[in-house]
């Protein structure tokens, strides 16, 4: 019969995966268990603790307040167990084990995914579970070992390692600019259809600077999305002007599908960081962090690999 501690650990592992994926089935796939077995582990944990940890319906599973509180307090204990095992692995001087990686969708697809096969080939004893999702993930309680974040970092307990800087810019298709006119000043954007990425924090304003002149333009448009690639597609189709990062639209600029807008004005650069839950990661996580630092160009805005020059063979635009 399972001991008290066996029930706690097994239930906690199940709770971590359910909280991470929001699904008993997905949690079971990660733990090599059936949905029923995961549910029984959670039932046993709730019985041991004497409180309800999850809201469960036929469609979704979510943490109760007690569940979130317990997870925040208990996950560090799991990390201590992992760290003890990692210490033994580090003695062997060969990184091994599972790395749970949280990545933003577009940046991860373009600038990190291409480097992961080389990393895995170099370290055959390491497994990577990559989670591509633009939602904020609190890796201190989600069980992730490393996350890559694009943009301004909030104060937290996480340890940040800078990876690169990216340039924000405005782009539009040639067809749109020929049809609607070329903006010459930031305030001209008030009369344009501006495509907005809804995961940008704050009011829908685009801060443009030229020397000492600054304009925070309250833009509006017919299309908003929380997925950047969908907005790139819309911009290429001539729907409007897009505020994006140069690393994401490099191929579109090179092919002439998109053109820079208001090039003599600048937007704040974007910082890319790797975030760790602690200052002393296991060998396998250190190996991946070093690989990312070596692979990602420090300045993505000038990285030749992304093809960032515009098509200069086409005729110039007119108003």
Q: What's the short story on this structure?
A:
This protein is α/β, with parallel strands linked by helices.
What is the number of helical segments per DSSP (H or I, 4+ residues)?
11
The end-to-end span amounts to 79 Å
Question: How many strands in all?
Answer: 14
User: What's the overall average pLDDT, rounded?
Assistant: 82
Sequence of strands across the biggest β-sheet: 4-3-5-14-6
Give the C-alpha Rg: 23 Å
The helix/strand class is alpha/beta
Uncertain regions spanning at least 5 consecutive residues: 303-319
Descriptive overview:
- By secondary structure, this protein is of the alpha/beta class.
- It is 38% helix and 22% strand.
- The strands form four sheets. The protein has a five-stranded mixed sheet with strand order 4-3-5-14-6, with helices on one face.
- Helix 1 crosses helix 2, helix 1 crosses helix 3 and helix 1 packs across helix 4.
């Amino acid at each position: 019969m399972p001991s008290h501690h066996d029930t706690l650990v097994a239930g906690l592992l199940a709770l971590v995966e359910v909280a991470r994926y929001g699904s008993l089935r997905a949690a079971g796939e990660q733990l090599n268990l059936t949905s029923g077995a995961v549910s029984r582990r959670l039932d046993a944990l709730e019985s041991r603790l004497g409180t309800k940890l999850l809201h469960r319906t036929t469609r979704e599973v979510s943490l109760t307040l007690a569940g979130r509180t317990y997870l925040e307090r208990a996950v560090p204990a799991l990390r201590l167990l992992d760290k003890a095992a990692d210490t033994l692995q580090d003695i062997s001087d060969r990184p091994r084990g599972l790395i749970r990686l949280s990545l933003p969708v577009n940046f991860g697809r373009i600038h990190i995914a291409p480097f992961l096969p080389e990393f895995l080939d170099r370290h055959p004893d390491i497994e990577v579970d990559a989670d591509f999702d633009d939602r904020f993930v609190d890796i201190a309680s989600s069980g992730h070992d490393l996350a890559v974040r694009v943009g301004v970092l909030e104060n937290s307990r996480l340890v940040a390692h800078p990876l690169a800087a990216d340039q924000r810019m405005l782009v539009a298709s040639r067809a749109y600019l020929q049809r609607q006119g070329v903006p010459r000043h930031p305030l001209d954007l008030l009369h344009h259809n501006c495509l907005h990425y809804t995961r940008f924090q704050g009011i829908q304003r685009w801060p443009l600077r030229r020397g000492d002149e600054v304009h925070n333009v309250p833009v509006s448009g017919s299309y908003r999305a929380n997925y950047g690639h969908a907005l790139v597609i819309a911009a290429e189709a001539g729907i409007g002007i897009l505020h994006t990062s140069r690393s994401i639209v490099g191929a579109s600029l090179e092919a002439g599908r998109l053109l820079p807008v208001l090039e003599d004005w600048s937007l704040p650069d974007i910082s890319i960081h790797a975030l760790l839950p602690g200052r002393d990661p296991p060998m396998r996580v250190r190996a991946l962090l070093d690989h990312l630092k070596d692979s990602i160009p420090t300045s993505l805005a000038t990285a030749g690999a992304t093809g960032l020059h515009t098509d200069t063979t086409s005729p110039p635009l007119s108003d």
